[in-house]
Amino acid sequence: MEVKFYDEIEDNKLKYAVIASRYKGQWVYCKHKERDTFEVPGGHREQGETIVECAKRELYEETGAVAFELIQIGVYSVVRGDIETFGMLFFAEISELGKLPDMEIEQISFFDEIPEKLTYPLIQPKLVEKISKTLIK
Asked: Span 5-9, mean pLDDT?
């Protein structure tokens, strides 16, 4: 498996939005109800939705964020064998969290560093590292 970064790609190829987020100086990670691991907020783009709309929706659904600054970082892809899927990487500085919607996420947690028990350990650390190098000095 390989993670790649691109300057741009055709919009219709963007299937996911991933939103690495911070709240009060800590990274925000989600724990899905069906897993014992943590993940960066994000998810699949719905039909008719822009990638920015997808990012805003997923950030709210997975964290309860109601006020935030959203910054588009760039296109990433995950290559598995002969298949390459594309997503847009975002960074969000969350200023206000509301109630966590009763959906697929059981809880959110805050970390100074990337947690050890990740749902996608070969992908998400590379995405957070990209944001750290780009934005967080």
From this structure: 94
Q: What is the CATH number of the domain that holds 96?
A: 3.90.79.10
Average pLDDT over residues 28-38: 95
Q: Of the candidates 51, 64, 50, which has an alpha carbon nearest to the alpha carbon of residue 18?
A: 51
CB atoms inside a 10 Å sphere around CB 11: 11
CA 111/CA 132 separation, integer angstroms: 14
Domain residues for the domain of 115 are 2-134
Question: Tokens 């960074």, residue?
Answer: 91
What's the N-to-C CA distance of the chain in angstroms?
Answer: 29
DSSP 52-99: HHHHHHHHHHHH-EEEEEEEEEEEEEEEETTEEEEEEEEEEEEEEE-P
Give this prediction's pTM: 0.94
Report the C-alpha gap between 72 and 62 in whole angstroms. 18
Number of structural domains in the chain: 1
Query: Which sign does the torsion angle of CA 67, 71, 73, 79 carry?
Result: positive
